Amino acid sequence: MAVVCAVLALIVFILVDPSIISVLAHSPKKLPVTAVLFVQLAFELPPIFVLMAMLPRVSLYSWEQLGLRMPSSRALLYVIGGVAAAILVGDGGSILVEHLSHHPHHMQDVAKMFENIRHTPVLIAFVLYGVVVAPIAEEMIFRGFLFNLGLRYGNFWVGAIFSSLLFGAAHGDLELFLPLTLVGFVLATVYYRSRNLVVSMLTHASFNAIAFTAITTLRTH
Question: pTM for this one?
Answer without folding.
Answer: 0.81
